[in-house]
């Protein structure tokens, strides 16, 4: 799988999450010898408002058939000892920590990511310049953050786990001390108990606008929102994105420009179906829409009037009654040129032509006085 790999489960809950395990079904008969199970582990990251978050990866370890807190029994997966910038693994990218490493069959009870002391963070200072700070790691975290897994591992199967590092929740500003503390918040998931959504984001003019793409997951399918969470990803330089760890279901995929001052607002793709263990590719790009404007005005007759906005094809874009003083405001009008018709019973209708509505702006019409019919 090359897209450019994943990005992100942003859980609103603060606990560690497991989304089960991934197993490839064995299509051979029982008489065929099975090889040892193998495991791959990839690291991904949720978006964070920092320039860089550099962490030293020492190892990934697992414990088989053992839920105890004892430090004995951990198996090293022989991950490379290296420093990585977590923010490099957003927007559909991931870091392979372990690839098809043979492990014993049984129950994979726990997994832990072991970090070193070479952790730093880069933040913009008051002069909008990059400034690097050490990330302090609490002693309780130095042996590795333990994740409860409880996944059945069988011979002849390959299991592909994702460690999702939530940077935003993992960085703690330590009050008056001035220290910045790394308290890792991770989730572990597997592709077979979730799917992937891939697609691209663009505009009507095929402009690439850096965007955040997200889906809202109703975890328990209940009216309460406490169990809901958002899965999100940044687009890359081509506008492509990948949402990983999306449970099976049907979703609205929403894309929103990162720059809030952009002329573009959100765009979405509706009824996107996700199947566990499969990649759903959205056929058509999600098109960002220009932010709408509005039209306001006043009818000096101080009567209730009906205001209708039509485009160049005479299609009705909006219609609305004024208040009793003849004042009106029509919102969410796409940028463009329109004809505005003001009418009331007993009066001659009045057309205002060539009304220009600009992006994210209010167009104020000159006051109008209707003539009695």
From TrEMBL:
Gene3D superfamilies: Carboxypeptidase-like, regulatory domain (2.60.40.1120). InterPro entries: Carb-bd-like_fold, DUF4382. Keywords: Signal. It holds the Pfam family CarboxypepD_reg. It comes from the Bacteria. Transmembrane segments: none annotated. PROSITE patterns: PROKAR_LIPOPROTEIN. Residues 39-184 form the DUF4382 domain. Residues 1-26 form the signal peptide. This is DUF4382 domain-containing protein. It comes from Snuella lapsa.
């Amino acid at each position: 799988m090359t897209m450019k790999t994943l990005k992100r489960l942003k859980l609103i809950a603060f606990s560690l999450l497991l989304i089960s395990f991934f197993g490839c079904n064995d299509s051979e008969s029982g008489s065929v010898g099975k090889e040892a199970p193998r495991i791959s582990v990839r690291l991904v990251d949720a978006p964070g408002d920092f320039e860089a978050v550099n962490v030293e990866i020492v190892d990934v370890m697992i414990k088989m058939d053992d839920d105890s807190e004892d430090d004995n029994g951990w198996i090293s997966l022989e991950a490379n000892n290296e420093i990585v910038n977590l923010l490099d693994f957003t927007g559909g990218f991931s870091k392979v920590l372990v690839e098809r490493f043979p492990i014993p069959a049984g129950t994979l009870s726990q997994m832990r990511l072991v970090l070193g002391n070479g952790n730093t963070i880069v933040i913009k200072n008051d002069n909008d310049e990059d400034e690097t700070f050490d990330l302090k790691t609490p002693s309780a975290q130095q042996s590795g953050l333990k994740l409860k897994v409880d996944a059945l591992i069988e011979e002849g199967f390959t299991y592909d786990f994702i460690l999702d590092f939530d940077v935003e929740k993992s960085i703690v500003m330590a009050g008056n001390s001035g220290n910045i503390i790394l308290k890792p918040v991770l989730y572990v998931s597997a592709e077979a108990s979730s799917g992937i959504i891939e697609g691209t984001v663009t505009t009507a003019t095929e402009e690439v606008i850096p965007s955040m793409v997200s889906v809202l997951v109703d975890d328990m399918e209940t009216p309460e929102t406490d169990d809901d969470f958002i899965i999100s990803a940044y687009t890359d330089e081509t506008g492509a994105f990948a949402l990983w760890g999306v449970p099976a279901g049907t979703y609205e995929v929403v894309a929103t420009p990162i720059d809030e001052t952009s002329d573009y607002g959100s765009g979405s793709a509706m009824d996107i179906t996700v199947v566990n263990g499969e990649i759903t590719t959205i056929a058509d790009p999600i098109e960002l829409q220009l932010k709408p404007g509005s039209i306001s005005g006043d009818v000096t007759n101080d009567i209730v009037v009906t205001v209708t906005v039509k485009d160049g094809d005479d299609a009705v874009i909006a219609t609305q009654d004024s208040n009793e003083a003849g004042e009106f405001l029509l919102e969410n009008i796409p940028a463009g040129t329109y004809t505005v018709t003001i009418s009331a019973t007993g009066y001659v209708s009045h057309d205002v032509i060539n009304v220009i509505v600009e992006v994210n702006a209010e167009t104020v019409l000159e006051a109008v006085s209707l003539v009695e019919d």
